[in-house]
């Protein structure tokens, strides 16, 4: 085992400072390009206006140009009559002002007397309604400073100021090289151990946003000689090299040695999490960065290091992170050894942003898709308490976040369907965090969600949901929107090879079970049914193995990771499993009474009570929706 | 005069609602493209995962895969010894887990005994350190809803979920047609009345940001038949037509008639200011929008209407306006007939955003370049009082705004030079609002600026600046940073054709003067000198004609709009004017004592006391900087 396990743990800011010092002579050369093609480029020099705009006096309105002295006596009692060609010239907005004139009277203030005569009833003030020469831009004036990223409006001002070509830094050409023996091109027939390569595609797309020009290389297998050859060649043709994978301390880690063979490693290991094993170096006078293979680590290295390097090569400093202040819906712990990036969902509840850290069960790439923002826990802190006011780096616009309905609670695929139907309507989106029914109740109690989805069986009364709401949220008026009744049952492989027909059979047949997490309605139901049957949970193999959604439990069974699990009919169908009904349960929505008036909630209720939605329920099967939309207020 | 003066005044929201209803059948067709090329495109269908990711159980760490049952007895006292090939398999992060194993032990927890044997001192918990199949993405799971704009991270999740091609709406092809007899291509030799065409270049660049694919047409002169021909042809090849200019009620307004000839005008006139005369119509089953010619109007029509239309054609709703809350530094009045867009500068002073409406003297295109944000005054309001808390649509990131040093006060070109030198350093930018010395003092008093620049002569003591600070800001500790002494003088045309050698000569020679605005130090100096000489300001032609900067006064003289003006030496030199010294004055910086500790201010002081800056002053001439950087605190 040949592993590079000695990583440094230098702070992000320090790492960047050191690296910039090392690559300070590698900045991009300057090129001259057409102004109208300069969007997103960085000015290499300050840019001054070559001409004034306007370069003559012009009318600011539609009307007539006059010599103001001829109008001084005008009043309602004594209108002044003016003749075209003699006393006035008709002008439109932008027209030049004749030399003898010093004011423009608006068309609305003219009384037409004949084809070429008008009367006015008040005098014109000298220079009224005239855009003076240079009013917009004065020759010699600074239009843009150096190191400025050119925006569309800048292009307008530059051309108006007579600047038709600009000096900018060349766009860095970036080589994106995916490496690893285990990664395969999308479309390849997959065998166990293969990983579909997609990081490079994300990188290319990010580099485009950062203002670079990226080229994706073919996958390079873990062959040291080959890797050296490819990197050497790339470093001669590109301005920045990104090597993906192979920068963790794994066996197949050639990246560091490749760089050391061709050039120099300056930093290996930065105190960020995820993203720690990043390598910063130089090969053939070109910066090279090795990015960890785990997609979430890769993303944070791109956003926090590569983005800055692409900017730095063009003499630019990135300043576009956007933050809002939010309240944390639960405690976040973090190591004081790292700057930690925690993905969060955001909701705007009662005029406050609520940040809900994304549950651990969430997948890697999907958690990035679902994240609304990132909490950056500084190196010196060990985390934040629940309820803390924190700064969140937002990944969406505030408008989007404010138009997001936050649902925290128990998951069902029908939420995805409702989410999709709502998105189609345009304005609102549904964002759901899957923390189980009890998690939803607690979020509702703490005013951290718009609504909760739940299916909680009260063991005493046998009633669903209402007893829990009354017990846990006694001081808030909560309405219950009836959603669906759904069948919960055992999901087993097609053909039911172990012939499991009841909960008892799990133990009898020694089947491998996969459970749901604590606090989930499905788990409470399981425990209730097991108790009724007098089964000790300890007898079930895999009782402690937790998954977070119905569909992921179904997937475990489908791929023979388990023999059975408890879940809803639709999840079994999607995964092509057999289904043994165990109980019918009530899956409802708990929502503070006053939220029923919110526009987004109204649209959401429209969606779930629509024909289209019910048709989708029929397609899935296993749902009874005869009470759907009934609102219970007490 | 043939003018379309009857415009409707429908609200922005209503106009868009009506227009969308009219063009609802003109949405873009769907196309299938490679996932990795889909950044910025809008999903036409919900997208579900085709495979799970990972599609097998894999190791989450580097270590050994084991059957947990074999480890249950391990403790510090009784280590368990495991043999490679028999009891364990070495795995790296991402490696598949062999069928007989159900846990991974991290390499850090292994005690190496021999080449193929290790000992462990605690048991492995079943499923520890294993990334379960489908942990990230489960087959059949919704990855993206319909009507979603695809981001780089989405591309990763899609490919990971086995989705290599996506159904998206085609990008709308947008024809940008500049029209008008007065507009000319950049580079044409200019004659009075010409306007350089640049709006179309701004539009093309904005359309790119909006997710459309724009083509700029050659300028079409105001020839009705020609315009009809060009629009007709464009409407057959493009998905959206933008006609620029000709939509105000001016004489040369053919746009409306062009549309009416080929199709239908739905709306002409929307209650926004600027931007009112916009036209929304349809030609040959393609939406067509006529955009006013004034660049600022054009910009707001693009941002508030065209952007939404480009999105709507792709089934998308724009949600990316970003707002912050700021305090208004002065009263803003607005007509209750319009939704009004007021450009503002933003500063972050003492933990509050301050919004300073951009002065009226500011030019059109430059005011867009300089604007940090836009205050949207709703139709039903007549404005806001000074100090009001308002929402500002920000055009820069909050980071940029927070790294902006706000200077409100008297203008001098040396501020532009300092601004450029500061920008080059990377982090901070200087943003200066030119409102004259008194305006600066008041902003400082109201805590609305980081510092003020001023040159105010106390008529009693003959001393500069300090008496004003003491008088107007008695309750705040203000430091005075000595900046420069500069010569103020009369700027006259090269060769001094009217032979003006003193202020008296302005009256004697009947010269046309151009003055500075009230409250400016230059105006106070003029009034002081006139009083000393016993000259009645009323005798000066143009005494009431106000301009806002030295350089624009100089430009007026250079282009023969005036015969003389009072200003600084450097402005006269830039504009190639002769200069008759009148007085030496002290141009200084007033700054609250505590701000001297701000990092941005320190960098600013470094810049103005640098050799490079002084060299620039020498180049300009007319500045005495021997006291530069001296700080007077009392």
From TrEMBL, chains A, B:
It comes from the Bacteria. One of its GO terms (cellular component) is cytosol. CDD domains: MoeA (cd00887). Its cofactor is Mg(2+). It catalyses: adenylyl-molybdopterin + molybdate = Mo-molybdopterin + AMP + H(+). Keywords: Magnesium, Metal-binding, Molybdenum, Molybdenum cofactor biosynthesis, Transferase. InterPro entries: MoaB/Mog-like_dom_sf, MoaB/Mog_dom, MoCF_biosynth_CS, MoeA-like, MoeA_C_domain_IV, MoeA_C_domain_IV_sf, MoeA_linker/N, MoeA_linker/N_sf. Pathway: Cofactor biosynthesis; molybdopterin biosynthesis. Coiled coil: none annotated. One of its GO terms (molecular function) is molybdopterin molybdotransferase activity. Its EC number is 2.10.1.1. Residues 175-312 form the MoaB/Mog domain. One of its GO terms (biological process) is Mo-molybdopterin cofactor biosynthetic process. May be involved in the biosynthesis of molybdopterin. Catalyzes the insertion of molybdate into adenylated molybdopterin with the concomitant release of AMP. Belongs to the MoeA family. This is Molybdopterin molybdenumtransferase. The lineage of its organism: Bacteria, Bacillati, Bacillota, Clostridia, Eubacteriales.
């Amino acid at each position: 085992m040949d592993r590079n396990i000695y990583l440094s743990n230098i702070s992000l800011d320090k790492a960047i400072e050191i690296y910039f010092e090392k690559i300070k002579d590698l900045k991009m050369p300057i090129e001259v390009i057409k102004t109208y093609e300069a969007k997103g480029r960085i000015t290499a020099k300050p840019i001054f206006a070559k001409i004034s705009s306007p370069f003559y006096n012009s009318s600011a309105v539609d009307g007539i140009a006059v010599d103001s002295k001829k109008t001084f006596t005008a009043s309602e009692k004594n209108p002044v009559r003016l003749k075209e060609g003699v006393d006035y010239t008709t002008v439109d907005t932008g027209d030049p002002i004749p030399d003898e004139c010093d004011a423009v009277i608006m068309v609305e203030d003219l009384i037409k007397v004949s084809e070429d005569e008008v009367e006015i009833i008040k005098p014109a003030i000298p220079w009224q309604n005239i855009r003076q020469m240079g009013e917009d831009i004065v020759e010699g004036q600074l239009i843009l400073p150096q190191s400025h990223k050119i925006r569309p409006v800048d292009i307008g001002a530059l051309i108006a100021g007579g600047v038709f070509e600009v000096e900018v830094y060349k766009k860095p050409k970036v080589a994106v090289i995916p490496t690893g023996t285990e990664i395969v091109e999308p479309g390849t027939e997959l065998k166990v151990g293969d990983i579909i390569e997609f990081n490079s595609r994300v990188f290319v797309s990010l580099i485009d946003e950062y203002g670079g020009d990226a080229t994706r290389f073919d996958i390079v297998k873990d062959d040291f000689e080959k890797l050296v050859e490819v990197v050497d060649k790339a470093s001669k043709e590109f301005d920045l090299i990104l090597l993906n994978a192979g920068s963790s301390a794994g066996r197949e880690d050639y990246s560091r040695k490749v760089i050391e063979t061709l050039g120099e490693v300056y930093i290996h290991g930065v105190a960020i999490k995820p993203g720690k094993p990043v390598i910063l170096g130089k090969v053939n006078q070109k910066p090279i960065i090795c990015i960890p293979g785990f997609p979430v680590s890769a993303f944070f290295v791109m956003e926090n290091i590569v983005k800055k390097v692409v900017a730095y090569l063009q003499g630019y400093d990135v300043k576009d992170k956007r933050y809002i202040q939010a309240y944390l819906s639960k405690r976040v712990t973090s190591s004081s050894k790292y700057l930690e990036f925690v993905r969060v969902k955001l909701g705007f509840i009662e005029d406050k942003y609520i940040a809900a850290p994304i549950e651990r069960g969430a997948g890697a790439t999907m958690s990035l898709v679902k994240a609304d923002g990132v909490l950056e826990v500084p190196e010196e802190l060990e985390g934040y308490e629940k309820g803390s006011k924190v700064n969140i780096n937002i990944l969406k616009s505030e408008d989007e976040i404010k138009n997001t309905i936050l649902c925290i609670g128990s998951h069902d695929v029908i939420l995805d369907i409702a989410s999709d139907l709502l998105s189609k309507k345009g304005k609102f989106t549904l964002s759901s965090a899957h923390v189980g029914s009890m998690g939803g109740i607690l979020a509702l109690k703490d005013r951290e969600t718009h609504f909760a989805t739940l299916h909680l069986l009260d063991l005493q009364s046998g009633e669903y949901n209402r007893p829990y709401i009354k017990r846990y949220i006694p001081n808030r008026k909560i309405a219950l929107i009836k959603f669906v009744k759904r069948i919960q049952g055992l999901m087993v492989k097609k053909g039911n090879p172990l012939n499991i027909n009841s909960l008892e059979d799990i133990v009898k047949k020694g089947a491998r079970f996969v459970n749901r997490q604590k606090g989930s309605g499905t788990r409470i139901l399981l425990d209730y049914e097991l108790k009724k049957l007098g089964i000790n949970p300890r007898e079930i193999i895999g009782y402690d193995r937790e998954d977070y959604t119905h569909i992921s439990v179904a997937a475990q069974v489908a791929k023979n990771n388990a023999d059975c699990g408890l879940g809803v009919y639709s999840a079994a169908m999607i995964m092509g499993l057999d289904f043994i009904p165990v109980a019918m349960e009530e899956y409802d929505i708990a929502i503070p009474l006053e939220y029923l008036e919110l526009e987004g909630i109204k649209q959401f209720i429209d969606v779930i009570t629509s024909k289209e939605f019910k048709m989708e329920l029929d397609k899935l099967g296993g749902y009874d929706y005869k009470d759907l939309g009934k609102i219970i207020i007490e």
